[in-house]
Amino acid sequence: QVQLVESGGGLVQPGGSLRLSCAASRSIFSIYTMAWYRQAPGKQRELVASITTGGRTNYADSVKGRFTISRDNAKNTVYLQMNSLKPEDTAVYYCNTVPYHRGYWGQGTQVTVSS
Hints:
Layout: E1 4-7, E2 10-12, E3 18-24, E4 34-39, E5 46-51, E6 57-59, E7 67-72, E8 77-82, E9 91-97, E10 109-113
Parallel strand pairs: 2-10
Antiparallel strand pairs: 1-3, 3-8, 4-5, 4-9, 5-6, 7-8, 9-10
């Protein structure tokens, strides 16, 4: 059973930065495209950024130029560097594969952008 554990969220002012981390209980990163998803209150979960096993990245238009996804297969960890944060980035952030695996959803990490 794979477990994904997200961390690094918190409260930050608009324009600030956070770095999220996602660690897996066993190595799946070398097999799958990994992604960060987020879900804001009252909204559907959306894919924010993804990274293939070869390192190719893709971003939602809303975060392009502000967020950077990276991965360390040796550490079974995927990261999301978030800069120039906006109030509309407020959400619970999750990592999962692409396409997502229902059994891999973790608790997520809350990101709140507010002054």
